[in-house]
Specification:
This protein is of the alpha+beta class. The protein has 14 helices and 23 strands. The protein folds into three domains: 260 residues, BirA Bifunctional Protein, domain 2 (2-Layer Sandwich), CATH 3.30.930; 97 residues, Anticodon-binding domain (Rossmann fold); 71 residues, C-terminal domain of ProRS (Translation Initiation Factor IF3, 2-Layer Sandwich). The protein is 35% helix and 27% strand. Strand 5 and strand 6 form a beta hairpin.
Length: 475
């Protein structure tokens, strides 16, 4: 599509600046006075609300309940699980004073809430009849990041964190995998982004987990984005916090647990996967405005009235906005193109005479004339077509951006020249994973569930290898 908006950088010249320009010009967010934090503007927050509503419905349909835990965690409580606190220590923000008095014990502002849920479960769970506990929390968390970027990495961000307790290890593992499936379903159907799913290596797994599962996205610039994770804890946290229950044989058992979460980072993924040089391109399921109606020659009799009639009709099937402001139509076209609205509907005096309107697709720029008699069916089908086209384009980019390597120099050359995902065989040794990070500045993204036999030996050390791992440079 021809670049028509000069207010943003060219994404193929300066992708980082393009991203920042889109975030601001599309009115998604602004930098706050609080360093490292952002202000979620109404349009950006509305995208998050759609994600939240979609996931919340799926979680409730599978028996999960929403709860809310305190924002502050006592230091002693945080230290109960050693691996967990060690993993988060560099990012923890501490509250040391209450008013003018120094606290006898510091509180951390939650970087995540495992410890609070565990302390609660230790009191709330007594019998097998109390299980499972399927809790989810919508909240913000704070992690004192040194380098920040809106939506992708910030000191405070919005997310959901699920924390569940089960009678057996098999159940907690099944929970972690079920939630990953739900996340990937939302990724494909709602965000129109094909996910790369799999298990994290020991080095990359969540602090304190037995195993971590992830879905990764490939951005337009070839970098990876970890878009969400689920974790199986087994009974590690239960033993640290004394979470036990009486089973059906009247014997004490430790619970097995899981946790999982996605965040506003998904908004960053949407921007960087689908956006173009004219701004955002939003998949219809996620768009706060799916159709914007722009009256042409709005000052002429009957135009606004007809536009309102069309809006009322379409409001039954889509999220619709009528822009009846006194801004010029060309200005409105550029504004809603920047905001990524999937369909723009134009209607003026000549259209009204012909009982028609013009619709323009944001994903392709295509404009077609549509009879008002068939408008509902046409809009419904076009929204579905846009989502499918956006998914197909992202899938094609993922396929084209996924390479294979049989040596570390080859992997480094690929990432230097044609960034993307690189599949390579790995022996499982931590030393080899460290070498990849040091010599190629890349990390393991996941061990895909769907394995391929690329070679017989590890691409780093040459020893026998039976795991195919996806590697990349990430945000």
């Amino acid at each position: 599509m021809e670049k028509r908006v000069e207010a943003i950088a060219d994404m193929n010249v300066d992708f980082a600046q393009w991203y920042t320009d889109v975030v601001r010009k599309a009115e998604l967010a602004e930098y706050a006075e609080t360093g490292g934090c952002i202000i979620y503007k109404p349009y950006g927050y509305a995208i998050w609300e759609v994600i939240q509503k979609t996931l919340d419905e799926k979680l409730k349909a599978t028996g999960h309940e929403n709860v809310y835990m305190p924002m502050l965690i006592p230091e002693g409580l945080l230290q109960k699980e050693a691996d967990h606190i060690e993993g988060f220590a560099p990012e923890v923000a501490w509250v040391t004073h209450g008013g003018t008095e120094k606290l006898t014990e510091r509180f951390c502002i939650r970087p995540t809430s495992e410890t609070l849920f565990c302390a609660h479960y230790a009191n709330a769970i007594q019998s097998y009849r109390d299980l499972p506990k399927l809790y989810n929390q919508w909240c913000s968390v704070m992690r004192w990041e040194k380098t920040t970027r809106p939506f992708l990495r910030g000191r405070e961000f919005l997310w959901q964190e699920g924390h569940t307790a089960h009678a057996t290890a098999e159940e907690s593992l099944a929970e972690a995998l079920q939630i990953l499936d739900i996340y990937c379903e939302i990724s494909s159907e709602t965000l129109a982004i094909p996910p790369m799913r799999g298990q994290k290596t020991e080095r990359e797994k969540f602090a304190g987990a037995l195993s971590t599962y992830t879905f990764e996205h490939l951005m337009h610039d070839g970098k990876a984005l970890q878009s969400g994770t689920t974790h199986d804890f087994g009974d590690k946290f239960a033993r640290a916090f004394g979470i036990q229950y009486l089973d059906k044989n009247n014997k004490q058992q430790y619970t097995s647990q899981s946790s999982w979460g996605i965040s506003t980072r998904l908004i960053g993924a949407i921007i960087m996967v689908h956006g173009d040089n004219n701004g955002l391109v939003l998949p219809p399921p996620i768009a706060p405005i799916q159709v914007v109606i722009v009256p042409v020659a709005a000052h002429k009799p009957g135009v606004i009235e007809k536009a309102e009639e069309v809006r009322a009709t379409l409001a039954k099937i889509a999220r619709v906005k009528l822009d009846a402001s006194d801004k010029k139509p060309g200005w409105k076209f550029a504004e809603y193109e920047m905001k990524g609205v999937p369909i723009r509907l134009e209607i003026g005096p000549k259209d009204i005479e012909e009982n028609q309107c013009v619709i323009a697709r944001r994903d392709t720029g295509e404009k077609i004339t549509v009879s008002l008699d068939n408008l509902e069916a046409t809009i419904t089908q076009t929204l579905a077509d846009i989502r499918q086209n956006m998914y197909d384009r992202a899938a094609a980019r993922l396929k084209a951006g996924t390479h294979t390597a049989t040596s570390l120099p080859e992997l480094k050359k690929i990432l230097d020249e044609t960034p993307g995902f690189v599949k390579a065989m790995w022996c499982g040794e931590d030393a080899c994973e460290v070498r990849v990070k040091e010599e190629a500045t890349a990390t393991s993204r996941c061990i895909p569930f769907e394995q391929e036999k690329i070679a017989d030996t590890c691409f780093v050390c040459g020893k026998p290898a039976d795991k195919m791992v996806v590697w990349g440079r990430a945000y």
